[in-house]
Amino acid sequence: MLRALEPNGFYAFAGCILSCVAVDPFAEAEIRYKFLVEERRTGNLQPRSYRVAVRDLAVLDSEGRRWMLGPEDGIWYRRENERWLQADPPRRLVCASCGHHNLGRHSFCVECGQRLNR
Ligand SMILES: [Zn+2]
Fold it and tell me: Are residues 101 and 72 part of one domain?
């Protein structure tokens, strides 16, 4: 599905994000979202395809809850009791020293002890 929509640049772009930097799934979805918005703005992506692509950015968190970005507002919603509620996703902090993904409540990396940037 995505293959038909995306120009080659997307793969170079996404490939770099995925291999150059360890990002948390929410940050990754936000980066892809910005790309899709730009593609729609320039006319490379039709509105319907845009909405489908944004829906594909949905993230499951560590507790199995489903999150998605609003196609028009770019803010996060969490699925709860059959409704989408606006909410802040649980951020993971990536250690600059060793690349370990830490839970947002930690101030120091659980792997190497480096202080985490917020
Ligand atoms: Zn670390």
Answer: no
The rounded Å distance from CA 66 to ligand 1 centre is 28
pTM above 0.70, yes or no: no
Cα 116 to middle of ligand 1, angstroms: 8
Parent domain of 16: 2-87
Ligand 1 centroid–CA 95 distance in Å is 5
Could you list which residues have their CB under 5 Å from ion ligand 1?
Answer: 95, 97-98, 100, 109, 111-112, 114
Q: State pLDDT tens for residues 32-60.
A: 999 999 999 999 999 999 999 999 999 99
Both 62 and 116 in one domain: the answer is: no
Q: Which of 49, 58, 54 is nearest to 1 (CA)?
A: 49
Average pLDDT of the chain to the nearest whole number: 83
Q: Which residues of 86-95 are buried (b: 16+ CB within 10 A; e: fewer)?
A: eeebbebbbb
